[in-house]
Automatic annotation (TrEMBL):
Membrane found in the keyword field: yes
Domain Major facilitator superfamily (MFS) profile intervals: 21-471
Protein name: MFS transporter
Keywords: Membrane, Transmembrane, Transmembrane helix, Transport
Subcellular location: Cell membrane
Membrane topology, record value: Multi-pass membrane protein
Membrane spanning residue stretches: 20-39, 59-79, 86-104, 110-132, 144-167, 173-195, 207-224, 230-254, 274-292, 312-333, 345-363, 369-388, 418-439, 445-466
Keyword Transport assigned: yes
GO molecular function, one term: transmembrane transporter activity
Gene3D superfamilies (alphabetical): MFS general substrate transporter like domains (1.20.1250.20), Multidrug resistance protein D (1.20.1720.10)
A GO cellular component entry from the record: plasma membrane
SUPFAM superfamilies: MFS general substrate transporter
Organism, as annotated: Williamsia herbipolensis
Length: 483
């Protein structure tokens, strides 16, 4: 049985019920985050077992990225219109359906379809953040929102070692069953214990806005994910990037004139919101490059002069401490936000990420040094990620929270996609020859980590800017207080 609550209403039995709501939504967010990374280490295995080409196997990732990028802001707006709990169940249902499809097939085309459906679950994290902001008691919001926000990073840090274990001991289809079972459990918990807040935003579905946004994002994400294969100077890559600029520019024009815009350009251009979203791109960039850099770095042959020749499992385990620390630091970050404000917490998180990346640049001799640097990056990411939704919530009307958090999650994902493109091209360009094969060199990784450290520092500076009194929260109806 579920209850219907108004914005910010504290329901009876809030202590135990709040705990159950956090568990239900947190589990859904974790499963959605895991779905993004679980297949990454087993792509070669899938390609070999079902006879798919490397390009076809890569579409298992690309299809999820494309659908996720397009779906997150659209589902966020639908959630503000029709209910956040309903759309969270839809997102988790997509994870369940997509995972079951993939678990039952060996056909690469069907598997790509399943992964595309799974991409809809990317909306679970911003929906969870906005839903918790609506149903939890005021005292619980800060730590709960921080925890769910951190799941985007935790999923990557824990997904790689989990995939490594499965790759060594089980058939890769087990990964899809894990996603299906986790999604089903989360749906059941959400239906059973999560309140259904009233006060959704009325309005019509903005079809032109959806078409332009989806088209623009697809034209942006597709060349970023495939550019290294197509060639960055190819007609397809350049043509799609130009098309994305045109479509997104048209989106701005159309949305400013729409009575019920999919994306509220006035709210999106609000300086604190805009700066926070840019900072989110930088943090997502730094984190993803650190993940990929650590996993590939550790698995590189010792003959490269820096690698350890480790297995997929060992490479994943090197990232596990960072994922655990992200979880543990979520409530700490909430307390820091209460004392300092979310902008200064973002500043601290960005500097910690940069410090961890400096460790990665300087210390290269031992595996423990790699783990240390990765763990410091994870600690900073956990703190920074905790601050981002709070900054969005403080400067966004309550009726627009789901859409605003969806855009912010999209910004983080775009940062990760950009990191994959930049990192892949950079490591392919700066190489060392080992056994007749060109492999990324130590210098290539150091350049990548330097770029990531700069990105993290820029995110930290953005935190200082948004904490400036000149960008204080506007006193307008419906804007939440800091949590």
């Amino acid at each position: 049985m579920t209850t219907t609550t108004t914005q910010g209403e504290v329901h009876a039995g809030s202590g135990w019920r709040a705990n159950l709501e956090i568990i239900a939504i947190g589990l859904g967010a974790l499963m959605a985050a895991l779905a993004q990374t679980l297949v990454l280490p087993v792509l070669p295995t899938i390609s070999r077992d079902i006879g798919a080409s490397t390009t076809e196997a890569q579409w298992l990732l690309t299809s999820t990225l494309l659908v996720g990028a397009a779906a997150v802001p659209v589902i966020g707006r639908l959630a503000d219109m029709y209910g956040r709990r309903l759309m969270l169940i839809v997102a988790l249902g997509a994870l369940l359906v997509g995972s079951v499809i993939d678990a039952l097939t060996d056909d690469i085309r069907v598997m790509i379809l399943g992964r595309a459906i799974t991409g809809l679950s990317s909306a679970a994290i911003p929906l969870g953040i906005s839903l918790l902001s609506a149903v939890l008691p005021e005292a619980r919001k800060g730590s709960a929102v921080a925890l769910v926000s951190a799941m985007l990073g935790v999923g990557g840090a824990l997904g790689l070692p989990l995939a490594g274990i499965v790759a060594e001991h089980f058939d890769y289809h087990a990964l899809y069953w894990i996603g299906a079972v986790g999604a089903l459990a989360s749906i059941a918990l959400v239906l059973a214990v999560v309140g259904n807040p009233r006060g959704e935003r009325p309005g019509a579905i903005d079809v032109p806005g959806i078409v332009l946004l989806v088209g623009g994002l697809v034209c942006l994400v597709l060349p970023l994910s495939q550019g290294s294969s197509w060639g960055w100077g190819s007609f397809a890559t350049i043509g799609l990037l130009v098309a994305s600029v045109v479509l997104l520019a048209l989106l701005v024009v159309v949305e400013k004139r729409s009575p019920d815009p999919l994306v509220d350009m006035r709210a999106l251009s609000n300086p604190p919101v805009a700066i926070t979203n840019v900072a989110s791109i930088f943090v997502g960039f730094a984190l993803f490059a650190s993940f990929v850099g650590t996993a590939n770095y550790v698995q590189a042959p010792e003959a490269t002069g820096y690698g350890f020749g480790s297995s997929v499992l060992v490479a994943g385990l090197c990232l596990m401490p960072s994922g655990i620390l992200m979880l543990l630091l979520a409530p700490v970050a909430a307390r820091l936000m209460a004392a300092w404000g979310p902008g200064k917490v973002l500043f601290a998180g960005g500097l910690i990420i940069a410090a961890g990346l400096v460790v990665r640049i300087v210390l290269t001799d031992s595996l423990w040094q790699i783990i240390l640097g990765s763990t410091i990056v994870g600690a900073g990411t956990g703190i920074a990620y905790a601050s981002l939704p709070s900054l969005i919530n403080v400067h966004t009307p309550a009726a627009d929270l789901a859409a605003a958090n969806g855009i912010n999650t999209l910004a983080r994902s775009l940062g990760s996609t950009l990191a994959s493109a930049v990192g892949g091209s950079l490591l392919a360009a700066i190489t060392v020859t080992v056994g007749g094969a060109a492999l990324p060199s130590l210098g290539g990784y150091q350049v990548l980590f330097t770029i990531c450290a700069v990105a993290a520092t820029l995110a930290a500076l953005a935190g200082l800017v948004v904490s400036s009194p000149k960008l204080a929260t506007h006193d307008r109806e419906g804007v939440l207080e800091p949590v």
